[in-house]
Amino acid sequence: MKAHLLTAAMALGATASLAQAHDFTAGDLTIQHPMAFETAKTAKAGGGYLTIINNGEKADRLIGAKADFPRVELHTTEETDGVARMMHVDSIDIPPGETVELAPGGFHVMFMGLDGDPFEEGERIPATLVFENAGEVEIEFAIEARDGAKDHGTMDHSNHGAATN
Q: Which residues, including other chains, have CB under 8 Å from residue 21's CB and lie 6 or more apart?
């Protein structure tokens, strides 16, 4: 197991404190329930999802994410002719007084380079979200069971053009 993933036993041993610490705050921003689905052993990438609430009167922008993987990018999903394609985006706007969801089928954090070290239910992935105004915010993505959700690892990740939202 890579150092960036905590063991399920550690996660279970700290369930109460981790459950309370699963929402994060940075200035006027609240980051709720960062999570990713477990992946297949052969998956090369996994998506991270969360909700960002801007409780302030000033817009902010998510401009990046960092974690212990070969590549971590902000992505969106575009569907053309029934094929979902992951597209790199430079940023995600967080308007004042608004809630922005990073969810399957839309914006998400893409962790690339899993290379045989899949996300496993119960693990946590330490990461840093980078905001234009709020700065860097350290969070953890909780790995959850897929329960029939679309397998993100089988989507086309070949088009990594620099699109913005």
A: 140
- Do 100 and 51 meet the contact criterion of CB atoms below 8 Å apart? yes
Residue 80, both tokens:
């053309």
Per-residue pLDDT tens for 22-57? Answer: 899 999 999 999 999 999 999 999 999 999 999 999
59 within 8 A of 85, measured Cβ to Cβ: no
Q: Where are the domains of the chain?
A: 8-154
> Cα-atom radius of gyration of the chain, to the nearest Å?
15
Q: Output phi, psi for 15, to 5 deg.
A: -50, -50
Architecture of the 8-154 domain: Sandwich (2.60)
The dihedral built from the CA positions of residue 132, 134, 136 and 140, taken in this order, carries a sign that is negative
Q: Which two tokens stand for residue 144?
A: 């959850």
Q: What is the pLDDT of residues 123-144, one digit of tens each?
A: 999 999 999 999 999 999 999 9
